[in-house]
Amino acid sequence: MAADDISLARTPLKWLRGKLAGNGSERRRTGQAALNAFAIRVASAGIAYLTQVLLARWMGSFDYGIFVWVWVWVLILGGLSALGLNISMMRFVPEYTERGNLPLLRGLIREGRILPVAVSTALAGLSLLLLWRFGGALEPHYVLPLMLGLLCLPPYTLSDMHDGIGRSKSWINLALLPPYVVRPLLILVFMAMARAAGWPLTATTAVGAAIASTWVTSVIQAIFIQHRLSREIPAGPTTHDPRLWFNTALPIWFISACELVLQNV
User: Fold this and answer.
1) How far apart are CA 226 and CA 138, in angstroms?
2) d(Cα 163, Cα 90) in Å, to the nearest integer?
3) pTM of the entire structure?
4) 84 within 8 A of 256, measured Cβ to Cβ
5) CB 128 within 8 A of CB 153
6) Are 146 and 70 contacting, i.e. CB atoms less than 8 angstroms apart?
7) In terms of C-beta density within 10 A (0-12 exposed, 13-18 middle, 19 or more buried), how is residue 124 classed?
8) Is the four-CA dihedral 79, 81, 84, 85 of positive or negative sign?
9) Closest by alpha carbon to 220, among 158, 171, 169?
10) What is the model's pLDDT at position 26?
11) Which secondary structure element, helix H or strand E, spans residue 56, and what is its range?
């Protein structure tokens, strides 16, 4: 066989090796992302267990019970405020990116953050109004911690949205580390600081630590997410398709609502 014939015969083989190498690289990235997500969730479970043990010992069962009750309400209301759009991000962001539909991508990322945060803010305001009007129906030691806990709703919901954006872009560490690792660690750090300063470790103090940790982690995560988005998505016009987004999100929202209630009841 002539040298030219051999070269031509090798060309398809080179192309096939390149495709296989590319697929292998993609599989490696996917596998690494899955491994990172698993490791973060395992670490989060360990941190949550440690945090609960220490807080229960420091605060006592009565105040710790009030704090957990308040935080469960934050988890439920904050999760519902996302309207399922955090999960829809994983469906539409990769699609719009692959198609190069930047106006819809910009609209989804913008509206998908603004609307849930607005809903959570309105829900917090309405809940505060109801507590102010009907708070007498609750025992007094529940009212103030719950009122303070409602201040966590906007940043908690924003973090949920950035979780969805981060996962959709395979930024697993940026999506999961702030809410699942950094936030509970900061609660523990702030409570340890309050203990060292001699403050009373009541449910109100713990809720204050939760407010600070939630806002800090949400703002830091938002800064990093926005920085990476601005590098990948150039500025330009935006378009919206809310009917499609909500038709996709609402069934997910209903399923998430059932899961939240079952997990936290």
Assistant:
1) 41
2) 10
3) 0.85
4) yes
5) no
6) yes
7) buried
8) negative
9) 158
10) 62
11) helix 3-59
Q: Is the pLDDT of residue 3 over 90?
A: no
CB 120 within 8 A of CB 83: no
CA proximity to 176, closest of 69, 78, 26, 35: 35
CA–CA gap between residue 217 and residue 220 (Å, rounded): 5
Quick check: 21 and 161 in contact, CB under 8 A?
A: no
pLDDT over 90 for what percent of the chain? 60
Cβ-Cβ contacts under 8 Å for 201 (sequence gap 6 or more): 58, 59, 63, 191, 194, 195
**CB-side exposure of 164: number of CA atoms within 13 Å?**
25
DSSP 82: T
Token digits for 242? 């809310």
Chain-centre distance for alpha carbon 238: 24
Structure tokens at 103: 């106006």
pLDDT tens-digit readout, 134-182:
878 888 899 999 999 999 999 999 999 999 999 999 899 999 999 999 9
Considering just the CA atoms, what is the radius of gyration of the chain in Å? 23
Q: Report yes or no: 36 and 172 within 8 Å, Cβ to Cβ.
A: yes
pLDDT tens for each residue of 45-83: 999 999 999 999 999 999 999 999 999 999 999 989 998
